């Protein structure tokens, strides 16, 4: 499925009462996808299983966001955040995601799990999309991938610090203002 998908710029939505659910192995390969995920992303479950979750990565997403996700979940903690995803058609859909590690009985991380619901479109438009565009712009100013992600992460954490709250508090303040 290594076909290059071009973003169409068209936003699509899933019903507010539904959750998009997926599970992955430790490397982020999809091991479970619910019906809402398959439907909005435009893939069958069989097509999704075994694929890297980056299959639905949208090029507008800054790398720093995913660095923050992976650093947090690999350390055994949960994270909430906004993600712009790309369907098979190239259309995009925004989600408010909760990503968590799953543990075995010895406390080892054995998998990851994510539930996503529809974010408030006005929060995405007024706060998140402009923030991510700025972080992406910062990242694109660096030819070196490692430096790009570090600079993006700094832009992201500086923004959170400027609001004088923690990252988690900011995510919840935005989502619950909805
Ligand atoms: C449980 C779980 C759910 C994820 N969900 C998404 C998602 O919805 N969209 C996305 O682009 N990346 C998601 N990711 C992150 C991807 O694994 C990947 O890091 C990201 O798409 C960036 O791709 P890259 O790491 O190849 O640059 C998820 C990861 C995990 C562990």
From TrEMBL:
It holds the Pfam family PAS_3. Residues 25-76 form the PAS domain. PROSITE patterns: PAS. NCBIfam families: sensory_box (TIGR00229). This is PAS sensor protein.
């Amino acid at each position: 499925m290594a076909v290059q998908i071009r973003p169409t710029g068209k936003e699509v939505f899933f019903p507010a009462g539904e959750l998009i659910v997926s599970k992955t192995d430790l490397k982020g390969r999809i091991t479970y996808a619910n019906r809402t995920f398959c439907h909005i992303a435009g893939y069958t479950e069989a097509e999704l299983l075994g694929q890297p979750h980056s299959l639905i990565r949208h090029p507008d997403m800054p790398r720093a966001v995913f660095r923050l996700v992976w650093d947090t979940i690999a350390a055994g903690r949960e994270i909430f955040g906004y993600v712009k995803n790309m369907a098979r058609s190239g259309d995009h859909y925004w989600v408010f995601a909760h990503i968590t590690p799953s543990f075995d009985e010895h406390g080892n991380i054995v998998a990851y799990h994510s539930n996503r619901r529809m974010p408030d479109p006005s929060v995405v438009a007024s706060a998140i999309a402009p923030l991510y565009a700025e972080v992406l712009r910062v990242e694109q100013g660096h030819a070196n991938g490692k430096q790009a992600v570090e600079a993006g992460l700094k832009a992201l954490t500086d923004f959170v610090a400027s609001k004088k709250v923690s990252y988690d508090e900011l995510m919840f303040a935005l989502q619950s203002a909805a």
